[in-house]
Amino acid sequence: MSSVVANLFTSWTFWVGLLVGFVLSRAWCGLKAWRHHRPVRPALTVDMRHVGALLGVAFMVWSVVQTNANADESHQIAAEAQRFAAETRQCQQVLITAIRQSRQITTENDAESEAQRDALAGWLRALLNPPPEIARLDGADPARQQYAIGVTERTNAAIDASQDRQRQNEARRAPLPDPDCGR
User: Fold this and answer.
1) Which pTM does this prediction carry?
2) Cβ contact 97:174 at 8 Å
């Protein structure tokens, strides 16, 4: 509604039409006075009460149009704010979910790192403190060497399996969404 009235008042054709209509109405009144042999000048004059009433009506129309435009804009701003709040809430929920998933994966990877450290510590203990029957043997003895190789292979297998689980965890980790929600 307000855009129609605003377009009407800002249109040059409206103003030209209003002026031509006013001039023609005064000419018509003058022509009628002339045809009835009355004085023409009083018929051409404009009563100031009519001008005042016309200005009052124009002001009232302008006031109503502005009030409606402000109300429409306020409703539009409120709707946009609600939409933005909903988008932000959704974005934050996605971000929080992604952070929680990432924290879970980090926790699992920390446990795997701890298992790897334990495996290395166990490997070192097993080599430095072998069972008594192996400890009695010379370092060049094939049985002692076989023991060290077996302990190392088992430790390497445990560490490799743990690292594989860490790589799988990292592959599951989704990238964190943009914290400012693309704005």
Assistant:
1) 0.55
2) no
